[in-house]
Amino acid sequence: MNKVLLNSILVLGVFFINGCSIKEYKLFQTETKKQEEITKISEEDYEKEATYENKIAPNDRLSITVYVQSGQGSQQMSSILTTRSNTSSNTKEDDIGILVTQKGTVRLPLIGSVELVGLTEDEASEKLIEMYKLYIKNPYVKTEIKNQRVIVIGEVKKPGVVSVTNGTMTVIEAIAQSGDLTDLAARNNVKIIRGDLRNPTVRTIDIANIVALNESSLFLRPNDIIYVQPRNLKGYNKAFDEIMPFWNMLSSILDPFVKRKQIMGDTE
Predict the structure, then answer these.
(1) Overall number of domains in the chain
(2) What is the mean pLDDT of residues 119-140?
(3) 88 has pLDDT over 60
(4) Nearest by Cα to 97 from 85, 114, 111
(5) Which of 225, 109, 115 minimizes the C-alpha distance to 174?
(6) Cα–Cα distance, 184 to 155 (Å, whole number)
(7) Pfam family example for this protein (predicted)?
(8) Region 41-61 average pLDDT
(9) How far apart (Å, rounded) are the C-alpha atoms in residues 77 and 86?
């Protein structure tokens, strides 16, 4: 009887602690359950996401290179101005680019301070070509945003910052570069957090259901946060780990009394 009672206390304790444990392990929660609903994207919004081009923003790092023809009649182009490092090493620091100021400007040789914020890479190149034409004959400018990235956290094997090298990236690509999902990942509850973190847009994607995927958008934008929520099992495991030391101590204290009662019962 006593063992049954102790086991009942253990089970109740696990469920009690579990509520707190699950809540602790889930980020970006709200008081409503609306965030658990799968986000559906219209065809019009999907087309916009599929063709989206990132725009230059303050604190971006740009690689800007200006080319001219090597000689009269030559089709070969040579670089005369570049924001890249001239050293032979290939570390990330060497190719970090030039910083866009909070005012949205960069300072370049010959033309000085130029506002590029809000422009795509192609639009920025076209603007710089027109400005360099005042100083250089037939210039060609290549502009690249170097620090495009997304952040992957939660139940992935290698959480962290993932670089966007192709101008765009999908949720599947970001998860693959993060080492795939863990066994405790809630595959039907992947969050995409976008925009100002004080008032973000939060989407929920079910990557385990092909029908749900057809109604969602897997396209990401730079600086998106992908959060893979844990399954409730992680909360149960955590609750069990937390209560086991107390349970072992309680068992060691009560065990002599249980054995004594059994002995006394046997002698009677």
Answers:
(1) 3
(2) 92
(3) no
(4) 85
(5) 225
(6) 7
(7) SLBB_2
(8) 91
(9) 18
